[in-house]
Amino acid sequence: MARGGINKALVKQAREALIGKGQNPSIDAVRVALGNTGSKSTIHRYLRELEEENATVLDNQARLSQPIQELVGQLALRLKEEAQAAIEEDKKHYDLKISTLMAKIEEQQGMITRASKQAASQDEALRSALTHIENHKENEETLKASLAKAAQSNAKLQAMLEEKQNHIHSLEEKHQHNREAMAHYRQSVKEQREQDQRQQEQYTQQLHAEIRTLNQVVSLKQADITQLNKDNGRLAAERVTAQKTEREREAAYLNAQSLLDTQLSKCQTLEGQLAQLRTHTHTQSIEIKKLKETVTPLQAWKEDKQIHLAKLEAEVAVKTQIVEQLISERGEKDQPPSAHPTSQKADTQKTNNST
Fold it and tell me: Residue 66's CB: how many other CB atoms inside 10 A?
């Protein structure tokens, strides 16, 4: 962006910069260095004034003796060497500092990458654990349904067992009644035998037939009782098996519940670790931002130093040129005055002007 105006200081700075670069400080070159700002007449006027000032300085320096000129040259050379050494040292120092900061930034970025990978791994483990928990929940629902079915089956078996026991009790009562009836009948037959000896034989066959019939009935009843006892034993065994199955299912349910609690605890731990990793990642991002903010002014400072170095080199070049001009003019002055009447006249005019 072009500046609003120019002054003598800006023209001097541009002229010295061009001389430091080994370029001719012409009006066009100075105007380009100033950002194409200012009129050529103004730039020409300032350049003429600066040349006159330099000529006056050279004229004053021409009066110096040879030892002083040598001392000035040595001082200029020493100044250039010390300035160059200081600039090189500062450059090495800040290059090392910037390299250290960049290495630290790369290390922090590597840590962030590793933390991101670890967070992704933790997320995958969390998703796997949640899937495992969902499977266990489904298994738990299945076990609960099976347990409910087993309870219903056990209730049905218990009802059947009670029904069979009631049936057996009813048969035993009937059998007891039959025995009592048979005993009563025998007693009545005995009394009838004593009372009516003659009708005994007639009734004996009838009684034997009835006894056989009763025995068959008793045998049938005893077979029924035996079958009922077998059914009762089988139902008892089935009940024991059902109770065992119920206990196994209860144990499996408890194991599943314990495993579910363990998986929930692991999930909570993984969630805590994930939160810590996210906090650590956020902190490292803030630190990297701060480091970048620190590197930016350092780079600006380095650019300023480089500009200052260019100015110093330009000044050293100008002073070296001045010293060389002084030495050259001093050599010319050491020659006989008659050989250079024009130069002597110019020197006299410069002396009068300076006076």
Answer: 12
Task: Please say whether the beta carbons of 316 and 305 come within 8 A.
Answer: no
- Predicted pLDDT at 348: 44
Q: Which amino acid is at 109?
A: Q
Mean pLDDT of the chain: 79
Instruction: Give the pLDDT score at 334.
Output: 58
Q: Is residue 42 part of a domain?
A: no
Identify whether 1 is part of a domain. Answer: no
Q: Which residues contact 243 (CB under 8 A, 6 or more apart)?
A: 154
Please count the CA atoms within 13 angstroms of the CA of 92 that sit on its side-chain side. 5
Determine the distance from the C-alpha atom of residue 308 to the mean position of all C-alpha atoms in its chain, rounded to a whole number.
44
Query: Quick check: 61 pLDDT over 70?
Result: no
Tell me if 304 is assigned to some domain. yes
In a domain, 14, yes or no: no
CATH of the domain at 284: 1.10.287
Q: Rounded to an integer, what distance in angstroms lies between the CA atom of residue 233 and that of residue 257?
A: 36
How far is the first Cα of the chain from the last one, in angstroms, to the nearest whole number? 44
Distance CA 180, CA 172 (A): 12
CB 6 within 8 Å of CB 41: no
Phi and psi at residue 25, in whole multiples of 5°?
Answer: -80, 70
Domain that includes residue 247, residue range: 63-354
List phi, psi (to 5°) of 3: -85, 165
Q: Let me know how long the chain is.
A: 355
Give the residue among 20, 19, 64 at the shortest CA–CA distance from 323: 64
Domain count, the chain: 1
Separation of alpha carbons 8 and 49, rounded Å: 9
Look at residues 136, 122, 121, 123 and name the one whose alpha carbon lies nearest to residue 264.
136
